Amino acid sequence: MIQLNFSKSADGLLPAIVQEAETGRILMLAYINQQAFTETLVTGYAHYWSRSRQTLWQKGETSGHRQEIVEILVDCDEDTIVYVVRQQGGAACHKGYPSCFYRRVEDGALQVVEQRVFDPETVYKK
Amino acid sequence: MIQLNFSKSADGLLPAIVQEAETGRILMLAYINQQAFTETLVTGYAHYWSRSRQTLWQKGETSGHRQEIVEILVDCDEDTIVYVVRQQGGAACHKGYPSCFYRRVEDGALQVVEQRVFDPETVYKK
């Protein structure tokens, strides 16, 4: 049984960094509690705890862009993990980009460095 | 001027993921406040806010294992950043491993998957 150090953060949640297995690209960061971590281990798909909705959340449950777990890494302090995943649908970001980190700091401003894969308006219909 | 969303977290700190430029490997995660972010931009070396010591911290100030900034990426919600770095000394982890994520989940336990680069006892002398 793997014990993570949930008491390290002010809100009892730990960050999960998501890295694409094939490319090594960092796709996103989200938060986990014990329930989300357990669901991820049991199902083989990335689950998180939504801070805004205060609910368990399977990545891709609305968009279909699920994240199949390839491996899970744990850091020295057991307070951060990495999900290495196969990203379904080619996009992790709810704004339609492959990665949430689609902007780079350049000359004191943010420059977009990726191309959109989908239009969020059509994927997240009301 | 780049505005990050420091109000998104309970303690006013944001996670900074550190990725090695040459290998794409995720080295560590630490936290920043505005002061740490500004120092990083101004000096070109990664700075953080230490949650345990409650102080500004330049990575490598004790070990010499500084992190030279190659680029900085910002996520869609402006509440997480990536420092892409050249890691000096070949090791980011205070336990002597190249990456803090030197263990993998295997059969419900943690297996070490990296080799130590240095002995922490000799680097962090009292």
Name its key features:
homodimer, 126 residues, mainly beta, Ubiquitin-like (UB roll), 8 strands
Could you describe the 3D structure shown?
The structure is a homodimer of 126-residue chains. The first copy, chain A, has 126 residues and is mainly beta. Chain A has one domain: Roll (Ubiquitin-like (UB roll)), CATH 3.10.20.810. Chain A is built from two helices and eight strands. The first copy, chain A, has helices at 34-43, 120-123; strands at residues 14-20, 26-32, 47-50, 55-58, 67-74, 81-87, 103-106, 109-112. In chain A, strands 2-1-6-5 form a four-stranded mixed sheet. A two-stranded antiparallel ribbon of chain A has the order 3-4. In chain A, strand 5 and strand 6 form a beta hairpin. Chains A and B meet through strand 1, strand 2, strand 5 and strand 7 of A and strand 1, strand 2, strand 5 and strand 7 of B.
- Spell the H/E element sequence of chain A: EEHEEEEEEH
Give the terminus-to-terminus CA distance of chain A. 40 Å
Average pLDDT reading of chain A? 94
Largest sheet of chain A: 4 strands, mixed
Greatest chain-chain contact: A-B, 38 and 38 residues
Number of strands of chain A: 8
Oligomeric composition of the shown chains: homodimer
CATH superfamily of chain A: Phosphoribosyl-AMP cyclohydrolase
Stretches with pLDDT under 50, minimum 5 residues of chain A: none
Spatial shape of chain A: globular
Number of helices of chain A: 2
Return the CATH topology of chain A. Ubiquitin-like (UB roll)
Structural class of chain A: mainly beta
